Amino acid sequence: MNSPWALIAFCFDRRKSCTYHTFTMSSPLYVWYSLNELEALGRRQAQLNGKIEIGRLTRLCELLMSDKGSVSASFEFSQQGVDRTTVDLSYKGTLDLVCQRCLESVTEEISGRVLFVVLEDDSMVSSAPEDHEPIVLSGIRCQPAEIVEDELIISLPLVARHSQIDECGSLVKGPGVLTSEDEVGLADPSFRGH
Predict the structure, then answer these.
(1) Are strands 105-119 and 70-80 parallel, antiparallel or unpaired?
(2) How buried is 131 (Cβ within 10 angstroms: 0-12 exposed, 13-18 middle, 19+ buried)?
(3) Which helix (H) or strand (E) holds 8?
(4) Measured distance CA(173)–CA(160) in Å, rounded
(5) Distance of alpha carbon 53 from alpha carbon 68, whole angstroms
(6) Which residue in 44, 98, 140, 187 is deepest, having the highest Cβ count within 10 Å?
(7) Distance in angstroms (rounded) separating the CA atoms of residues 66 and 55
């Protein structure tokens, strides 16, 4: 037993503790799936669940104050008819956005549910059910984490801000800044003086 590999094998065989370095298994939400694999998930009525680290969603991170936290997501696959795979996506998370009043952090709870239909190419979009969003693969693979990222981006508020001015940071609390009444006047064009 002069080889270091023999020592490791000895440790495993004897159930003694020894360090074993490897990457942990990836979440099924980070795996790339082909059309055939998605169809197989639909036939088995499979469910993929997991957490997605915000920091790994690079396009979303560009729109956030910080990349801390995670989003929980669940994909439920099913088969409609002979050749139609559908996906029911549910997601929920907390995002750290930039308040557009005070330019400080504002936490936003984001959640949603979207129905998808998996399609092989663009020609099939017209035959998709009206209440389902199409996922068109066109010979490429699909990663569930990217679908969640897309949904998070489109669910962001147009203008992120604290619900009350009193919750804002120091930028709006100084002299000569907006008050609640001023903000109502800016939002309502008929309120502006002539």
Answers:
(1) unpaired
(2) exposed
(3) helix 4-14
(4) 18
(5) 8
(6) 98
(7) 8
H or E stretch at 179: none
Q: Where do we find the tokens 């099924």?
A: 28
Which residue in the block uniquely carries the two structure tokens 């907390």?
A: 94
- Report domain extents, the chain: 26-162
In 3-state terms, what secondary structure has residue 12?
helix
Nearest to 104 by CA among 150, 167, 62: 167
What does residue 144 show for φ and ψ, rounded to 5 degrees?
-55, -35
Q: Residue type at 16?
A: K
Give the up-direction half-sphere exposure of residue 116: CA atoms within 13 A in the CB hemisphere: 26
Residuewise pLDDT in 10s, the chain (194 residues): 444 444 444 444 444 444 444 334 457 888 888 888 888 899 999 999 999 999 899 899 998 888 888 899 999 999 887 778 889 999 999 999 888 878 888 888 899 999 998 887 766 666 777 788 887 876 678 889 998 999 999 988 888 888 777 777 766 565 555 555 555 444 455 544 44
CA distance 86 to 72: 20
Could you count the other beta carbons within 10 Å of the beta carbon of residue 117?
21
Structure tokens that stand for 25 in this block: 């298994």
Question: Rounded distance, CA 155 to CA 57, Å?
Answer: 15
Integer CA distances (angstroms), 86 to 67, 152, 164, 166, in order: 31, 20, 41, 45
